[in-house]
Protein 1
Amino acid sequence: MSGANVPDIRLVQNNIFPKYSVTLDWLLLPDGTLDDSQALATAVCIALGTNALAAPDDVLPDPDSNDRCGWWGDLDAELIWNGWPIGSKLWLLRRAKINPASAREGSTVMMVENYIRVAMQPFVDRKVCSGFDVWVSRVDTQRIDALLRVYRGPAQPIDLRYEVLWDAMGP
């Protein structure tokens, strides 16, 4: 540990096209144990930041690739460890335009909201949280913001904010 207030691990996301990356590190407490005080928020970040397996009929962001992403650990996850396939399909929007509701492809804002809702629903189904709300809005011509509020019964809800800058996502 590099200092009492400095984490050994940090989360960094690179949205610069074409090298998307996330670096994870673990936050250690002064006694050397892992800080698990934000376990639910961490699980949500992983669920939204991990690429879910695309359906065979999903339009992939790279027309020259047939990589549907997903994670090999999802194979038999429910049978083996009572888990569920993790991740979201937000990655499918990497090269998408921000479309209005009138577009043939539909509203990009609604797609973002729906992808978040689908990724979060297993948390409710498995009683990891008691519920959630999602608010997604187009802030300007190049940005969509999302606020996710996760409820944990009588405990204080967790608010997680996300900003997606389309101009940083490449052509």
Protein 2
Amino acid sequence: MRKTQLLDLIIATLQADLAMAQRAAQTAHETATHEENVAENKYDTLGLEAAYLAAGQSRRVAEIGQALNTYRHLQLRPFDADAGIQLGAWVVLGDAQGGEQQFFLGPDGAGLKVRMGDVEVLVISPRAPLGHSLLGKAEGDEVSLGSGRQARTLEILRVK
């Protein structure tokens, strides 16, 4: 699988998320401004609640739109072992039990999951603790995930 295919899939997923968020924002706006939702007394808050929802949905649309624009302009580069893991890296981490997890270190859209065939890739950003700890590392290095009793050590198996 190629990084360009992964980037295309992330963009397509963000486009679908944006379309869904836009529909939700439009519905919330229509609900907030509908004549039947005008408050009849101080306890009638349906219109106010719908307005808060519409504002939140509008912020979500803006956030997804910004992430989409960022990914459309992302320049993918091959992994440079001298520089270590940088933005745009596709990283495979392994745990002590032989399990593997795949991550894409992206500029935005953290938490987004995309599936390429039977492989699930989680998008993380450098602002996330794991993303930050991956920066500058290379294959064979280890990173810690979590803290205290929940801490796990993961090995960087592959970087694309």
Protein 3
Amino acid sequence: MSYNILLFDLDDTLLDFGANETQSLTRLFGHHGYTFSDELFAVYNAVNKQLWANYENGTIGLDVVLNTRFSETMLKLGKVVDGPEWENMYRELLGTGDQLHIEGALEVIQSLSASHRLFVVTNGITHTQIKRLKQSGLHDFFEAIFDSQSIGHSKPSVAFFDYVMSQIKDFNKSEALIIGDSLHTDIRGGNLSGIDTCWINRNGQTSPADIQSTYTITTLVELFAICPPNRTK
């Protein structure tokens, strides 16, 4: 199969969100007088993951995720805080922190941009994701950036990918490939929308029977075998 349109997830696919998240949370909690420990992260992570899962399932809005994750976290610790105020500071810290590439990301994106049409598809906040991409040096390699906040729908919903397809000139499903690290948002999204997928499985996870990727790789550089970078665009 020859793919011309490549739809890349961002966090933990091209950018090391984990490192940026830890750095930003450490600064955020420190600013408010708390030491960001492993125990505190475990509480926050559980709250945050559940809220994002609810959002991706369509049961809550994005504003609920953003405005309550810190207040709910601290409430579990017996503290009442201003959730939106914490969130605003966190988003600024995320956007100004170290935007580290996943290994091979810059090489792969630079090479593929000469022969393919590249797009970002992300469940994230418009301003923050664009800022992070610019600071990482990857922004200018992409034809467009599609984020859930701007679209009003999130991956893996069909509505998200229907919008993406409607906005890409000369879009052809047979020429498109979704590349991402998340089975439940990227790969399921492709399954639901009829778009081929490439799962970046760095941790040896097992895919459930109801989610099937067209390709599975363990590093970004392996994408060259699926999408050779030296053909004519």
Protein 4
Amino acid sequence: MNNRKLSAMQPSDGVVWISGASSGIGAAVAMEMAERGWKVAISARSSKKLDKIAALHQNINAFECDVTDREGMSQTAQKIETEIGSLAMIIANAGIYLPTHFPEFDVSVFDESFDVNLTGTVNMIAAAYPFMIARKKGQIVLVSSVAGYNGLPTSAAYGSTKAALLNMGEAMAVDLAKYGLSVNMVAPGFIDTPATQKNTFHMPALMDVTKAAKAMVDGLEKNHTRITFPKRFTFWLRLLTFLPRQLFVRLLSR
């Protein structure tokens, strides 16, 4: 599904702001967009890591900020507007994966996952939205995951936040189109990043982070409403959504 009536933002439109950009796919996307001529603002909690990324390209500017700090995110958006230029695109990429391990029920895993992955995304949108809606143009990008398609083992907390982002993104895409704003949802599979390198299980179709960043930015330039990669993996996960739920649960429980 594409936002056919809306054009993708271009580097000439202003700045792209990327959260969770001190490493992994966020940092790779920052580099890819900087190479394509964008002015890039990157944010995360670690100023040292941000500064290392910013030092790699003259188009990248670092802004230390925590997505769970709503007022801080608002102040960062204002600072970007003042110091670099108009916010044309935001990429809400900050996220954490905290596995659930039963039979224990650790509520803190859910609380922290919701705070960063879901409320943190809302905080970023809230910070940039006033500038975009006033200009009646902009691109809001929500980085979800294929874990949001189906309930997967150990992902009760993580997957629920990513499913929420897909639902929220679709609703916002419908609501905001008439105001000139696009909403893009990105659902990656397994990407080779410092986060996934900690996984002890097999990760099918593991994708190089540089290739993943290119696939993501290519999709944003075409203003695709939903962007997934690698295709050979995400296609099969989408098919699983059509299985009867009882059969799906039985298969994955094994």
